[in-house]
Amino acid sequence: MKKIIQTNDAPAPIGPYNQAVLSGNTLYISGQIAINPVDGKLVLSTIQEETEQVMRNLKAVLTAAEMNFENVVKSSIFINDMNNFTEINSIYSKYFKEETAPARETVEVANLPKFVNVEISMIAVK
């Protein structure tokens, strides 16, 4: 049985999907972009600030499911320019302990929703 996870502390979905779905003990978090949930505006001033907003959005969804970054077992990072990898990774890495970090892939793509620079989705397990 699946349970829909929703929080006002992360951006509302802009299509036919949910912020996250909990199935058993596994949480599937939809891709998050740098939308500030308070005012609905994109945070795009620097790639670091954009990535930080994405991670805050992911944290809010994890919290709504009574989890944290230690529960994350898989991350998928989509970026529009692999030249931004180092900056994105420096922000992302602040949220994980190296010895327990999740599996991950980072993929360069042609475009992302709202033409942002980074989108991250996660899978977490209780």
From TrEMBL:
GO terms of molecular function: hydrolase activity
CDD domains associated with the record: YjgF_YER057c_UK114_family
Keywords, ordered alphabetically: Hydrolase
InterPro entries: RidA, RutC-like_sf, YjgF/YER057c/UK114
Pfam families noted in UniProt: Ribonuc_L-PSP
Family: Belongs to the RutC family.
NCBIfam families according to UniProt: Rid family detoxifying hydrolase
PANTHER family: 2-IMINOBUTANOATE/2-IMINOPROPANOATE DEAMINASE RIDA (PTHR11803), PROTEIN HMF1-RELATED (PTHR11803:SF58)
Protein name, as recorded: Rid family detoxifying hydrolase
Species, as recorded: Salinimicrobium flavum
